[in-house]
Amino acid sequence: MKFRAVIRDSISIRDFFNIITTLSKCGKDFIFHALPDRLVVSVNTDSPHTALPMWCDLDKERFFAEYHMEGLSQTHNGIILLMNSSSLLRGLSVSRQTTYFVKLKLMNKNMACLCVEMEVPSSEAVKNRSISHDVPVTVVSKRDWKHYELPKLPHFGMVLGMPNIRVISNIIENMKSSSPVMSVRTAKEGTVSFISESPMAKISCHCREQEVVSQGEDEEVICRIESKRLALFLLSSQFLSSAMRCSISAGHLVR
Fold it and tell me: What GO cellular component entries does it have (predicted)?
């Protein structure tokens, strides 16, 4: 098995660091799914330290300057790695500075590891400085792949745009103490509502005139979610200026 990926674009390097930072706040263990067309980084939901299931799809053409992987076989062309999230985050910490490239490579140095290599400017103008960090990994055998399948998403009844994530995060953080469960409702006229109810009060936040990305036949779609989990997801995100969408599968899932 072989895996090698290189990120050269400065924006992509910054985004990759922010992705790993965001996911590391939701769990202590990562799963790397290296596939022929993409890399999927997810929080290991089987770990006792997982606070919130999250994952990120990284398309090889759009995100990586170089991407090469060889799986177990043509039939099972994939690689699954388990690793500690804080170890990977430490390895990438230098990329917060000016970095010319970030290289990820699966290697065997007395044990399996993901080598994180970066090139950064040196105080000496003659030559750049190369930094590498080995992250210990566990290569999942084929017989255990069934325990680490990629998330399967249901049909979403409605998908709407959202206001700035910083604004929503502050509102949900203040609402979460009123009730352990919160209702998220989307309506076809472009309204996203967050509703928290208790025996003493009902608190609602309505975000109107949002972009309607897609919708089914229903006038509105509602799902209930744990207040603390929603607050944690919004608080952990490092992409405060990015566009956000709310997708709801009625009574089942909020994405």
Answer: checkpoint clamp complex; nucleolus; site of double-strand break
